[in-house]
Amino acid sequence: MSLAMEKKLDHLHWPLVLCTIVICTLGVWNLASATKSALNPMWIAQSKWMFLGAVAVGAFLFLDYRFLSTAAWPGYFAALALLAGVAFKGKKVLGARRWLQVGPMQLQPSEFVKLALIVVLARYFSKDDVSARKGQYGLVDLWQPFVLVLIPVALVMKQPDLGTALVTFAIAMTMIVFAKVNWQSLTALFAGGIASSLFAWQRLLKPYQKSRILTFLDPQAYAKGAGYHAIQSVIAVGSGQWSGKGWGEGTQNQLSFLPEQHTDFIFSVWAEEHGFLGGVLLVSLYGFLVLTALDVASNARDKFGSFLAIGIAALFFWHAFINIGMVTGMLPVVGVPLPLFSYGGSSVLADLLGVGILLNVSLRRFMF
Amino acid sequence: MPSMLGLVRRDADEIRELRPRNALGALVVVCAMLVLIVRLYQLQILRGDEYSAQSVSNFRKSLFVPADRGMIKDRNGHTLVDNRPSFDVFLTPAFCPPQAKGDARDKGGTRDEVMAKLATYLAMTPDDIDRMKQDYQRSWTSRDKLEKFKPYLVELDIPRDQVDVLEAHRSELSCVDLIPTPHRNYRVGPSLGHVLGYMSEVTPEELDDKPDEYRRGQTIGRRGLERRWERELRGTDGRENIAVNARGQHLGKDMDELLIPENERFVAATPGNNLVLSLDERLQEAADAAFPGRAGAVLVMEAKTGFILAMLSRPSFDPNKMSGRITRAELQKVNEDPLKPMLNRVMNENYHPGSTFKAVTSLAALEENEITPSSTLFCTGGYTMGNHRWRCDKPQGHGALTLKSALQVSCDAFYYALGDRVGLDALSGMAHRLGYGQPTGLDLGREIPGIIPDSKSISPATGSVRSHAINAAIGQGEVNVTPLQQAVAYASIANGGNVWIPQIVRRIETPEGKVVREFQPDPDVNNGRQGKLDVKPQSLAAVREGLVAVVNEPGGTGYRSRLADVVFAGKTGTAQVMKLGQKQKLDPATQAYLSRDHAWFVAFAPADDPEIVVVVLNEHGGWGAEAAAPSASKVVRAYFELKKRDAVAMKAGL
Prior knowledge:
The complex is a heterodimer of chains A (368) and B (654).
Chain A: H1 3-11, H2 14-34, H3 42-61, H4 67-89, E1 91-93, E2 96-102, E3 105-107, H5 109-127, H6 143-158, H7 162-178, H8 183-204, H9 207-217, H10 227-238, H11 251-254, H12 266-298, H13 303-327, H14 345-363
Antiparallel strand pairs in A: 1-2, 2-3
Chain B: H1 2-46, H2 48-59, E1 60-65, E2 72-73, E3 79-84, E4 87-91, H3 111-121, H4 126-140, E5 152-158, H5 160-168, E6 176-180, E7 183-186, H6 193-196, E8 198-201, H7 204-209, E9 219-222, H8 224-228, H9 230-234, E10 238-243, H10 253-259, H11 262-265, E11 266-267, E12 274-277, H12 281-290, E13 296-302, E14 308-314, H13 319-323, H14 328-336, H15 358-367, E15 377-379, E16 382-385, E17 388-391, E18 399-401, H16 403-409, H17 412-422, H18 424-433, H19 465-473, H20 483-494, E19 500-501, E20 505-509, E21 515-518, E22 522-523, H21 537-552, E23 569-575, H22 588-594, E24 598-605, E25 612-618, H23 624-627, H24 629-653
Helix pairs in contact in B: 12-24, 15-17, 15-18, 15-21, 16-21, 17-19
């Protein structure tokens, strides 16, 4: 092993690697319980995807993350093309077109769009000369990033996938807020957000999306309709009590009372079987992941790396927060996967690549 | 690379400037994670017990184990009503929704698939299919969200071959349950319909009333003993808890054992108690066979206790039919029958007693000292008061009559005179003492009081008090009585003045035969008389003498119905029916039938030490002597033949 290699391994963010491995391991273990009665053991497929992701991350670490800056625009447009492809040629599952058949695999391009968007926004904010704008962004200065965000968000909404659209938008908004926006603009953005959500309610949302939100506001009234998921999920979580019912022993999970238990409601399975202690552990792991990402951002070598890390922090934060908030009945049921826990190859791959970006940025923090 | 270095330097500065925002971001993240943890604490720790219970009730399905309903037996232990095994079909709407849920694993089928299959497998009539659909709709659209999880009854008591078909297709009908339910088996025909009653499904109102006791689709006693003794007969249902998945499918015995504590898995049912009646099934059959009419009543009661031995109201209904799968058309036919089969004529219909009431008038006159047993009155073929003349049956007149001979030939003129002398209020008073004009108290549901007019109750427009008394004296006018009241009144004349509340249940026993409650003769303590008629023994003796003459002396109206072996007493009655108005459009035959007189005969036997009272009412039967007395005579004979046979059997047994 060369000295350079050894030095690099020294600089690798080992706590982050460890945290990721722990989350992945628990995720696979939990998935095995969630799909115990299913014919095809999904945890094996999930492990394969994770292995693939780990290999991709390993390869990616040999490259300087700055090449992403060059690849930002091609990557962005490629992701948009895939999304457009989904909109017209996608595989329809449960009334939504979200998947694209690529050889033997089904890809969910919306997962990769988040990464592409993070990269392209990071590039935009790192190249842009803020000092030319009095050191702060006004509302008018932000029209370019907004266009960059709204195109993919609109395409995702069309699938329709409200959850992913919201998360994508939230990630982009987080990056914009971190990029020194002045307070007047922030206020205006907030007001605009409310106005546009009202508009969305009136014109854009599908009836099932509306009913999910209504259900969230009053789940009991929709107990056996749309609110069924929310109620059963809360029952699953609550019945876990201190230490849970034990792996494979969750009745809500095993007896199919929990809907979508291997994807959106995977946290309920975890909380039912491992209780409050397991729940706190997992929440802490995600917290650690996000805080580490912010730390990487603060210590990055350049603005590009810093914004990349902030974007990834936002990615993990919003996914984890919205997902757990949703399955514990604090937020409406919008389909958002829990990073590295929910079943899904595209999402696992995208999340691991996100971790790869963090590792890469942190690895090269001292390089000039 | 100086330019590069410059760029990096500026970057480093700007990143440093970004740090406060990153720190703020970290704070937000920590807070957000704390919010999640607090939420978990709230759900899992603070409300964990509640959600635990909910997760348990999710997979726990409670099947009820119906209790065996108590049997009803006659006085000799002969079973009148018991239960036979059968299966009922129930459907739970929640498990077969109107539209498929899009869940590939959901093999329960949709509403339409399941209903089409049920209709075929059960060979359902269009009526039944309609009802099944309506019940489904009601349950599905109910405001109560849990309503659709409650199974409702689709078909009652299906035949064995259909049970096999349903069992074979069980997997595609996961929302259909086959519940083994013991069904009521009435072993005697319609003759005991009114006494026993029948069973039918509980109504939603009754369910609201007693939500803990009844489940939808269960049956409840209607009419008669089934209704009156519902509480004793019903018992307490048991429970079996099983584990099901979200689609309501049973997970098997292993999962039951894993998920449900043993003491909750099976709670045995407590069977209901048995009723032992005072009724004698053989005498009931004899009474049914002896009664010739289309409509009417026969009642046999123990004269010394008030216990009923036989009770017939005709026309009647078949309790098996009423309790089972009766079609709407059949039910409508029963309800529209002009002869009203559902009416219990023994206690829920009024009739003029006609001449049978002369015993009452006689007692009143003797007690008021208007006559003595030996005094005579002269019948000229009628009785005149003011400008109105009441005619006697025998236009040429009966001549001089004592009380005994007046009863024997049933002379109306004698009683017109007696009624006029005694007065309406004295007549009314005596009638009330004998139990007329008020419910007798038989514990078998609703009972009408009958009508006994007095000077306060009549309206002057219908005639003077005197004319009312004259009409009442022969059981016409406004006097209305039930066959049950006749039995009570004649029993008290026969037994020396004890007024009994009639009873039909002798005792209540546990299924093992242990006596829970034994019923004793129950004196009617109304009017503060402690069950006593409170008249002179001589008066009773005089009336009894007349009633014996009716049957046993030539010229008596019941002479042709006398028996060789047994001396019994009685009184004929022929009650005029009120003329029908033109309101009802009836065919001439029915019109003719409905305008015929009611025939009565009330008897007690043996005359010297009466054991039983027999009341026969033959609605529109004509003359009491022809249409009622012979059947009463047959019933009396049957009673003594049975008694003799029992005595022989007893001796043989010893």
